[in-house]
Design brief:
By secondary structure, the protein is of the alpha+beta class. It has helices at residues 22-29, 31-35, 139-146, 152-158, 192-195; strands at residues 13-17, 39-44, 63-66, 70-75, 86-98, 103-108, 114-118, 130-132, 166-167, 173-179, 185-191.
């Protein structure tokens, strides 16, 4: 079998950007098989788009390597046999490479600033169906500002790592977008039929 020739004899390809679509991320991850050269996506911090508005420090990390959000889709329990099938998405966490220590930090789902769910992703536009803010202490201030009484379950839900149940077909695509502590957007897309047990 003939060995694939590496393009221009490069040993590694780095694709650098502010954000990336899931299908482009898949192409980058399959570059080894397609081109014979491994590729890595490197996320640029949104601070770079602000030009001279922010101070630059030697310790600033303007590039980061992040894994995709680790999500699980499971069938929700039916209350009645005739009810339509519903599903729940759980955010387990996210891996972030720390260039200072050369180690991978595992960020738990409960430690991300924000994650959003599109329960019917069309491969073109991310539509927020549900939004969660696990890592924030702002809920008490929000309660006071609203000057109304809400059930405790409302705040637990907004602060959580598990979505509310939603109806979907096995062919439905679900997208999860996570905003990490550096402001990076990371998105993963799953098809219900492929992942739900």
């Amino acid at each position: 079998m003939r060995r694939k020739k590496r393009p221009r004899n490069y040993t590694q390809l780095y694709v650098v950007g502010f954000a990336i679509q899931p299908n482009a991320r898949e192409m980058i991850e399959s570059a080894q098989e397609a081109l014979g050269t491994p590729a890595t996506y490197v996320q640029m911090t949104p601070d770079l788009m602000m030009g001279d508005l922010l101070k630059n420090h030697r310790s600033s990390q303007i590039f980061s390597v992040c894994g995709l959000p680790d999500v699980e889709i499971v069938k929700a329990k039916k209350k009645d046999r005739n009810d339509p099938q519903r599903y729940v998405v759980r955010l387990a966490g996210l891996d972030i490479f720390d260039p200072v220590t050369n180690e991978v930090d595992e960020l738990a789902g409960s430690d991300v600033p924000c994650w959003m769910l599109d329960t019917d992703y069309n491969d073109l536009c991310f539509h927020v169906s549900q939004a969660f803010f696990p890592r924030t202490g702002a809920w008490e201030n929000l309660r006071k500002a609203l000057r109304a009484e809400y059930e405790e379950s409302v705040w637990d839900h907004l602060n959580g790592t598990e979505s509310a149940p939603f109806e979907a077909l096995e062919s439905t695509k679900v997208a999860v977008k996570v905003i990490d502590q550096r402001g990076n957007e990371l998105m993963v897309v799953k098809t219900i039929g492929e992942v739900a047990p």
